[in-house]
Amino acid sequence: MTTAVTTPATGGNGARSAVAASARKLVKAYGSGETRVVALDHVDVEIARGAFTAIMGPSGSGKSTLMHCLAGLDSVTEGEVRVGGQEITRLKEKKLTRLRRDRIGFIFQAFNLLPTLDALENITLPMDIAGRKPDKAWLENVIATVNLEGRLKHRPSELSGGQQQRVAVARALAARPEIIFADEPTGNLDSRSGAEMLRFLRRSVDELGQTIVMVTHDPVAAAYSDRVLYLADGRIVDEMDSPTAEAVLDRMLRLAEDVPGADGTHGSAS
What are the E-state strand segments in 31-162? Predict the structure, then answer.
């Protein structure tokens, strides 16, 4: 078996960065015996700090499974996952929950905003639950970055879909996590709102020094990243630095021809 080993990427400034998250010999399997399905097959990967990394692949390639394992949202069958320098695969649930709360941010297709709270209250909610006061200067910087200054007292029902997603992004950024995982963050947005969202994510890396890992199927979205990882049948089969939408699309088409299963006909985990 040949395993793709990825090296630390460079961030937007071109300098080699420290590692924000990593996996070694990562296996995620479901079932046993003849019904066993391998979603991740001995994956080695390093995510550079201060960079924007996109993960792509067809349905069933394991891209969302990889993100969930790196984020501590899913257990692993074999191997090791680290966030920063801390190994997380053997943490007890209580400590893992605290790590996710304090060191990791999440952005998903569903905005997951509380309808009874206004935008600012939704942004600070995780810190309120943890009993922590937000850094005022940082919070103001985040709110300015996502352009929400005039909408902070509005409840979700009074905001557009794009504005709600910006609130979700601000919530992920507000606690200054070490890394943010975004699973198809533009999936519920129209093309204009989606492009706006991707620009905000790009700015959060360039101007706020954030680390972002984004799962996407969209070559245009991937083009906002510093680096693209390509998965097929649970393995990292290729990567690209400084991507363009055209180059990403071309690479996806070639992978569909060259890699067994890259057309989405094999595997069961996304």
Answer: 37-48, 52-56, 78-83, 86-87, 104-108
- Identity of the residue numbered 129: I
239 is a domain residue: yes
CA geometry: angle at 211 spanning 192 and 117, to 5°?
60
Q: How far apart are CA 186 and CA 168, in angstroms?
A: 12
pTM of the complete model: 0.82
CA Rg value for the chain: 18
Could you give the number of structural domains in the chain? 1
Domain that holds residue 143: 19-258
Q: Give domain status of residue 8, yes or no.
A: no
For residue 57, the domain's CATH number is 3.40.50.300
Task: Write the CB contacts of 124 (distance below 8 Å, at least 6 apart in sequence).
Answer: 134, 139, 171, 174
Distances (CA, A) of 110 to 53, 102, 164, 173: 21, 21, 10, 17
Query: pLDDT tens across 144-194, in order?
Result: 888 899 999 999 999 988 889 889 989 988 888 889 999 988 877 788 888
DSSP codes, 212-263? EEEE-S-HHHHTTSSEEEEEETTEEEEEEES--HHHHHHHHHHHHHHSTTTT
pLDDT tens-digit map of 57-111? 988 889 999 999 999 999 999 999 999 889 999 999 999 988 898 889 998 878 8
Residue 182 CA to residue 186 CA, distance in Å, equals: 9
Judge whether 264 lies within some domain.
Answer: no
